[in-house]
Design goal:
It is a single chain. This protein starts with a strand and ends with a helix. Helix 5 crosses helix 10 and helix 6 packs parallel to helix 11. The strands form five sheets. It has a five-stranded mixed β-sheet with strand order 12-16-15-14-13. Among the domains are: about 80 residues, no CATH class; about 60 residues, no CATH class. The protein is built from 20 helices and 16 strands. One of its GO terms (biological process) is regulation of autophagy.
């Protein structure tokens, strides 16, 4: 074809919609020659629910993309190609450009603004026959051969002349009478990119294997912190995860399908294999690939004889995860808590990461559970960074809550200023009962009594004050406490506590007189 102007038609339930004419961009090989467009140079693909026309320009070595709208067709940009023969697939909204001559695949996520590939070029590898297809495939294998050997034969003929790529994700091998379905090896793709924020953003957009994407994001973030990567890099990674979670809440796609305990079990299995994952997720590219799985027309209608009717527990759990988004609670329980257990040395770096996490969550107005604040206090107090901790409290970096106040009181055993911040926070939050108990614990009995009377705290037992006063071995203090409850607590004079402690007070006074 030497024409460059095309008309599009959309077939819908409402009828046929005629789209505006549009002109394809084509480079000329010579000054006076007209460009030729072959039928196999044009593809129609749906990516993220959008309809695109993809056109190969063999002279310019570019793949042009055009997006169809109801009233217009707009060119969306161009991607470079490196082979004279090109094929296109779409898997889980990822655009795969097969460079047939070099036998590699370049992946693009056109959801993001960047036109850079997701990772380094990847080979196309076979992952074997499913069990349901193994028996039928044996009939075509020669005596003495195995299905695995047959797969090796297929691998030697990757991108053969008899291969036909079918949009979106199928490949037909005519000579071997095999139909292959292309899958993404997310772990291998992640290992082939050094741009961690870009990898996380890519994984957060994957829906077909949401559980796998989520586990990879958790493992990558965990390893980033444990390896003490630059704070700026970790901050950008956290921003990607928080922004994705915020967006998933807006669209309603987020579903926490796995309980916290089940999440911990899954993450524990990730930690078990960390030596392997660590090399893949943070270092060089190993045997990374885009997976290809076999299928046949027979296996589509037949259940394997040894396959259980009911899915396993782990399969049911994974099926409940419909989004790879990670909530702030999951960030704490599956990333920060394990890191806190494993990280050794100065905690300044870890505190900086937590602050960046809090900043990211605050920027999208997402609440964070108090346990992350408690962890920050523990880390600062452990390194005796009390001045910095005080600034965090005063400037509301760690906002007031009962959990924060109680941790300040606990950590303030070695620093009176920090403990005072905890007491002030209890009073600020109107947690009168807890405030009175802390005053008694610190020995401020009369102040506690005055505060209890002023704020009408009736939940604190009189015996608590009486026992504390008796323990001080101060008869005047015990007398003051008894007088307070006798004057302001109706019916106290008739209680057994009143009689008992009055008798004790008399004995103490008698002993002093003697």
């Amino acid at each position: 074809m030497q024409c460059k102007t095309f008309s599009g038609f959309q077939l819908s339930s409402a009828g046929i919609v005629c789209l505006p004419k549009f002109e394809m961009v084509m480079a000329k090989s010579e000054a006076n020659s007209k460009p030729v467009l072959a039928a196999e140079d044009v593809y129609i693909a749906t990516i993220y629910g959008r309809i695109y026309c993809l056109q190969i320009d063999r002279v310019a070595m570019l793949l042009h993309s055009y997006r169809f709208y109801q009233d217009a067709v707009v060119q969306q940009g161009s991607l470079p190609i490196y082979s004279s023969k090109i094929a296109v697939s779409v898997v889980d909204n990822v655009l795969l450009i097969h460079q047939v001559d070099t036998k590699v695949v370049i992946l693009y996520d056109i959801f993001v603004d960047s036109r850079a590939p997701i990772s380094a070029p990847l080979p196309l590898l076979f992952r074997g026959f499913p069990r349901s297809n193994a028996s039928s495939s044996r009939s075509t294998v020669k005596d003495g051969e195995s299905p695995e050997a047959n797969i090796s034969d297929f691998e030697s003929n990757i991108y053969g002349d008899d291969w036909t790529f079918l949009i979106p994700d199928l490949t037909c091998n005519v000579s071997n009478k095999q139909l292959w379905k292309i899958h993404l090896d997310l772990e291998a793709i992640s290992a082939c990119s050094s741009e961690v924020p870009s990898v996380l953003e890519f994984l957060q957009h994957r829906k077909l294997e949401a559980s796998k994407s989520k586990q990879l994001c958790l493992a990558i973030t965990h390893n980033l912190i444990l390896e003490r990567r630059p704070v700026l890099m970790v901050s950008k990674a956290i921003e990607v995860l928080i922004a994705s979670y915020s967006q998933s809440l807006k669209t309603g796609s987020y579903l926490q399908g796995i309980k916290d305990t089940e999440d911990n079990v899954q993450f524990k299995s990730l930690k078990t294999n960390r030596k392997v994952n660590k090399e893949k997720l943070s270092g060089g590219a190993e045997s990374s690939s885009t997976e290809v799985h076999t299928s046949s027309s027979q296996s589509q209608h037949r259940r394997p004889t040894n396959s259980p009717l009911n899915a396993s527990v782990s399969e049911r759990q994974e099926s409940q995860v419909t989004s790879p988004s990670i909530s702030p609670d999951e960030m704490y329980s599956l990333v920060f808590a394990p890191v806190e257990e494993e990280m050794v040395g100065d905690s300044s770096y870890f505190v900086a990461i937590i602050v960046e996490f809090l900043r990211s969550a605050s920027s999208v107005k997402k609440k964070v559970q108090p346990n992350i604040y408690v962890l920050a206090i523990q880390l600062l107090a452990c390194n005796e960074r009390y001045a910095e901790l005080s600034l965090f409290i005063i400037n509301k970096v760690l906002p007031p809550s009962k959990e924060v106040a109680m941790q300040l009181l606990e950590s303030g055993r070695q620093n009176s200023q920090v403990r005072k911040l905890g007491l002030d926070m209890l009073r600020q939050l109107s947690l009168h009962h807890d405030y009175v108990l802390q005053l008694v614990q610190d020995g401020y009995y009369l102040e506690a009594l005055r505060y209890a009377r002023k704020h009408k705290v009736v939940t604190v037992r009189a015996s608590l004050f009486l026992e504390a006063a008796l323990a001080s071995n101060d008869s005047q203090l015990l007398a003051a406490v008894l007088r307070f409850f006798s004057d302001f607590t109706p019916g106290f004079t008739t209680t057994s506590d009143c009689h008992t402690y009055n008798q004790i007070l008399n004995e103490m006074n008698s002993a002093v007189a003697v």
